TrEMBL record:
Family annotation (Gene3D superfamilies): P-loop containing nucleotide triphosphate hydrolases
Protein name per the record: ABC transporter ATP-binding protein
Residues annotated as transmembrane: none
SUPFAM superfamilies: P-loop containing nucleoside triphosphate hydrolases (SSF52540)
Keywords: ATP-binding, Hydrolase, Nucleotide-binding, Translocase, Transport
Protein family (similarity comment): Belongs to the ABC transporter superfamily.
The keyword Transport belongs to this UniProt entry's keyword annotation: yes
Record InterPro entries: AAA+_ATPase, ABC_transporter-like_ATP-bd, P-loop_NTPase
Key word Heme present: no
GO molecular function: ATP binding; ATP hydrolysis activity
Function noted in UniProt: Part of the ABC transporter complex HmuTUV involved in hemin import. Responsible for energy coupling to the transport system.
Enzyme nomenclature, EC number: 3.6.3.34
């Protein structure tokens, strides 16, 4: 599903948290959102998810204004995993993932084999099948994070919004979750702090002080000059001795 932000601004008590942000992701693309702490990534995610209304501008999902969709219609199209997402504690891992099926259920459409299949598939994708019956309270931070992502995948959204999904994850699961997201046919917007992980996405948008300062392909948006200026460091592009894609190395300026 195509997502577009048109001239989005958002203020709280007269303070501008986002100013005139325009960006889009095409169906199936993975768009990385990067920027320093407090630059507005989570705020933008919440506007894209319809969890907050922009002060100005519009969010269009598959060319339809989000503001015109009902909560249920939004839930059938958009899944979000927020930073510090938490869940009631007396519940099993599997039940958390089953919550992802809620937007598709109704009195006329009770739980079916298809729902069970989607939950199984999501648990497999995040490599958490073996934990399905565990109590939520007994799980580690990374295991909970993977289950939140599984819950979002079980929702079968057209747009997946992930706010720092690799937080808490060991390097194997960081790479495997990002790989899985990039390979999904679903459009994804992913807030990331690891700029080298952002380099592996289809497109990158760079926020600074609530404004969009660069966007485009990773090579266009994440130039050493832009990264140095936005993060107040010195960035250099380097290549492994064995060739391969360039990546960034960082030093304090
Ligand atoms: N309700 C609010 N009232 C006042 N300021 C707020 C409110 N919510 C967020 N902010 C401020 O807006 C700015 C953007 O916050 P946001 O959480 O979007 O940043 P972020 O880029 O996701 O940061 P991080 O990388 O630290 O997660 C921050 O300075 C934050 O303190």
């Amino acid at each position: 599903m195509r997502i577009e932000a048109r001239s989005l601004s958002f203020s709280v008590r007269g303070k501008a948290l986002l100013s005139d942000v325009s960006l889009s992701a095409q169906p199936g693309e993975t768009l990385a959102l990067v920027g320093p702490n407090g630059s507005g990534k989570s705020t933008l995610m919440r506007l894209l998810a319809g969890l907050a209304r922009p002060s100005q501008g519009d969010v269009l999902l598959a060319e339809q204004p989000l503001a015109r969709l009902s909560r249920r219609e939004i839930a059938q199209r958009i899944a979000i995993v927020e930073q510090q997402a938490d869940t009631a504690e007396r519940i099993t891992a599997r039940s958390v993932v089953e919550l992802g099926r809620t937007p598709w259920l109704s009195a006329l459409r009770p739980w079916s084999g298809e729902d069970t299949r989607q939950v199984d598939k999501a648990l497999r994708t995040v490599e958490m099948e073996a934990f399905a019956q565990r109590e939520w309270a007994t799980l580690s931070g990374g295991e909970r994070q993977r289950l939140h992502i599984a819950r979002a995948l079980a929702q079968q959204p057209g747009l997946l919004l992930l706010d720092e999904p690799t937080n808490h994850l060991d390097i194997h699961h960081q790479l495997s979750i990002l790989n899985c997201v990039r390979n999904l046919k679903v459009t994804a917007v992913v807030a990331l702090h690891d700029l080298n992980q952002a380099l592996t996405c289809d497109r990158v948008a760079v926020l600074s002080g609530g404004r969009l300062v660069a966007s485009g392909t990773p090579q266009q948006a994440l130039t050493p000059d832009t990264v140095s200026e936005v993060f107040g460091i010195t960035a250099r592009q380097v290549r492994d001795a064995g060739g391969g894609a360039p990546h960034l190395s960082f030093h304090l300026a």
